[in-house]
Design brief:
Layout: H1 7-36, H2 41-55, H3 57-77
Length: 88
């Protein structure tokens, strides 16, 4: 507000930031994550139900990120191409 003489000029930067954050959060990041991760719809529903039951609305908000973190941890700790024991 100090650098610009009008209210519109002073609100230009916060509105641009909010617009870019909205686009990134709702379109860009889900597109990138959706192509990389394959989440089962049932797993998403179970995670949403469990975290909402445990932590309420905030748990519902965090259920998908927590599910993604769990999936990534599983992929890193238990890789598919890990050596297997030979059959008997």
């Amino acid at each position: 507000m100090i650098a610009f003489s009008s209210l519109g000029g002073g609100l230009m930067a916060p509105l641009a930031f909010a617009g870019f954050a909205f686009l990134e959060g709702h379109f860009i990041t889900p597109t990138i994550i959706g192509r990389r991760l394959e989440l089962n719809a049932l797993a998403v529903f179970v995670a949403l139900a469990f975290w909402t039951w445990l932590w309420g609305p905030m748990g519902g908000f965090l259920s998908s990120p927590l599910l993604i973190v769990g999936l990534i941890l599983k992929e890193h700790l238990l890789p598919v191409d890990s050596p297997q024991l030979p059959p008997d």
